[in-house]
Backbone:
């Protein structure tokens, strides 16, 4: 089974997440996409983070009806900071017959050198790096951390980078939907509509639980 791993804060999950997952699934021929909400994201700080249970609930609502989309609570169950390398090792141990690929945007890939044991991640799975609005797709090799470039060979015919383990990095251009979770939270805090930015079920959930609403402090 070929599984695409789509991890993130999903604070909240929105239509650009869903559309990019669907386009990657079709292009790469994945059997399923596994959405993994983080418990505590190590690279994001500050307020505005809904609880893990709220974010998980929104992901479940958003992917309902797509039989190829599934959700995993592996990082929420583990708790603490959610490091991708730990998640991948556990997934491989649980499902050794599966072939995993990590789906990340170009902006995140350009910062992978700051991730925990990033060199080890390349040995654990394939990568599908997607285009993002405002981030042009550069040459594959130049996007890699310098310390690991010698571990990869460029396969011009397939336009991929191949790791010494045989794992591959593929760049994929997807529809440029300029939607971000931060802009959605800002709209909510300003009392503006988020209709057509998130699935209706997620919009209703946010309203029901008053997530991301402006907090009024009494004098």
Residues:
């Amino acid at each position: 089974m070929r599984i695409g791993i789509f991890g993130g804060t999903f604070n909240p999950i929105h239509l650009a997440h869903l559309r990019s997952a669907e386009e990657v699934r079709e292009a790469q021929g994945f059997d399923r996409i596994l959405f993994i909400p983080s418990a505590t994201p190590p690279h994001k700080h500050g307020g505005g983070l809904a609880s893990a249970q709220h974010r998980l609930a929104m992901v479940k609502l958003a992917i309902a009806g797509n039989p190829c989309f599934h959700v995993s609570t592996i990082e929420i169950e583990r708790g603490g900071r959610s490091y991708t390398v730990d998640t991948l090792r556990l997934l491989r141990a649980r499902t050794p017959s599966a072939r995993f690929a990590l789906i990340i945007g170009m902006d995140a890939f350009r910062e992978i050198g700051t991730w925990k044991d990033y060199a080890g991640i390349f040995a654990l799975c394939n990568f599908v790096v997607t285009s993002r609005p405002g981030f042009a797709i550069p040459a594959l090799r130049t996007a890699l951390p310098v310390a690991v470039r010698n571990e990869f060979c460029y396969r011009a015919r397939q336009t991929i980078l191949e790791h010494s383990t045989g794992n591959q990095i593929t760049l994929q251009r997807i529809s440029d939907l300029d939607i971000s979770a931060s802009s959605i939270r800002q709209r909510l805090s300003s009392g503006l509509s988020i209709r057509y930015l998130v699935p209706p079920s997620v919009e209703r959930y946010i309203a029901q639980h008053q997530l991301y609403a402006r907090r009024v402090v009494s004098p």
DSSP finds nine helices and eight strands in the chain. The chain has one domain: 2-178.
